[in-house]
Design brief:
- The protein is an all-alpha fold and 265 residues long.
- Helix content is 78%, strand content 0%.
- The protein contains 12 helices and no strands.
- α2 packs antiparallel against α3.
- The longest helix is centred in the middle third of the chain and has 37 residues.
- The radius of gyration is 21 Å and the shape is globular.
- The protein starts with a helix and ends in a 5-residue tail after the last helix.
């Protein structure tokens, strides 16, 4: 499943290279607000913090709208500028929520954890460790918030809960997704974050969620299987080869020539 996930994401990014680059350029411009402007306002600390918060919230709202349109790419479709602006209208509450969470993580990382680490006792170290690991679980889980919000539920609380349900049911899958995207973003740095960039990472998460939902559809269809029911049901082996037959047919295979000269196929 992981191999096909990476392959499909790559194909979809390649087929929408220009639009992915535009989304990344818009995000890079947005990031400039919280990264550079607060430093120019250090002489007025409240204003500097306010600009930092506003910048983080806007970046989060932007990513939320990007997730809405990238879902179309994952579903073998496309999108236009009008779809992106419609996504902004529909998803800004989700962006505000995650933006606030990002600001809290920033606050914990820069102030609270260092404060507890400076306490000369095991109590301070314990508190710092608890906050760190709670924050780590939150980051790994909430990476899927935007795709879940875009694909499954408009209710923010339900989307929030589903992030943790997916993590505790699929911890290896979630950790793999995070590591994959960190590597992708690191590679993107050599290309000024134009490709695959944040848009590529978001698309990967939506592709991953979309394929992972096939597992839950299969479990629901086979809920009456005696092996999956009863007081002590066994953990089933998901038949990914069978579940991905249609996806593999729709995605197809390509040669290097078809990537470079698609019009010659």
């Amino acid at each position: 499943m992981f191999g096909f996930l990476i392959k499909k994401t790559f194909f979809d990014i390649w087929d929408n290279l220009f639009k992915v680059a535009l989304i990344n350029i818009g995000f890079i411009a947005s990031v400039a607000i919280p990264v550079f402007i607060p430093g120019l306002l250090l002489s007025v600390p409240p204003l500097s913090i306010a600009v930092l918060l506003i910048g983080i919230l806007w970046c989060s709202v932007y990513l939320s709208a990007a997730a809405m349109v990238l879902k179309r790419v994952s579903d073998y479709s496309s999108f236009g500028f009008g779809d992106f602006f419609q996504g902004l209208k529909e998803s800004w509450p989700a962006g505000i929520l995650i933006g606030g969470a990002i600001f809290v993580v920033y606050f914990l990382t820069t102030l609270i954890i260092p404060f507890y680490l400076e306490i000369p006792s095991m109590f301070g170290l314990l508190l710092a460790a608890v906050i760190f690991w709670t924050m780590a679980v939150g980051i790994v889980s909430l990476q899927f918030f935007f795709p879940i919000r875009a694909r499954l539920d408009a209710n923010l609380l339900k989307a929030f809960k589903k992030c943790f349900i997916i993590f505790f049911d699929n911890p290896g899958f979630c950790i793999f997704s995070l590591i994959h995207n960190l590597i992708i973003l690191a590679i993107s740095g050599f290309l000024a974050f134009l490709f695959p960039g944040p848009a590529g990472a978001l698309l990967f998460l939506d592709e991953a969620l979309r394929l992972r939902l096939l597992k839950y559809d299969w479990l629901e269809e086979n809920a009456q299987d005696p092996a999956l029911a009863g007081d002590k049901p066994r953990r089933p082996k998901i038949p990914w080869d069978a579940l991905l037959i249609d996806e593999r047919e729709r995605t197809g295979t390509r040669s290097l020539k078809s990537f470079i000269f698609p019009w010659k196929d």
